[in-house]
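Dear Dr. H.,

I hope your travels went smoothly. While you were away I took the liberty of generating a structure for the chain from your last submission, since the lab meeting agenda had it listed for discussion. I wanted you to have the full record in hand beforehand rather than looking at slides cold. The sequence, exactly as received, is reproduced here:
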Amino acid sequence: MKKPLAYNLKNARQRLPQRRPSDNKTRGGKCLIIAGSEGMAGAAILSATAASRCGAGYVYLASERKRLASIRNPDFLDRPINSRQDISMFSAIALGPGLQ
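The corresponding predicted structure, in token form, is as follows:
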């Protein structure tokens, strides 16, 4: 298992993968965000937006609220929070923004 990377302002730009204009979503990888308890949907949407802007190809949003992803941005994919599917398919996972 790879050791997680710690980013700071000095080294973040050097370590983040660079995407070419010809790249498609598959090259950007898959990001799972588990976020957004009832009343805190904004945290989930902001996290998903940030992941997308940072270069994630597919952004999966798992939340207690149904269809939270399509409220603001149809590019985010809904994922049930109780799913037991293998998480090894994701390049990155964010856990906790807006969870109570």
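Two observations you may find useful: The two ends are 29 Å apart (CA to CA). The mean pLDDT is 78.

With kind regards,
E. W.
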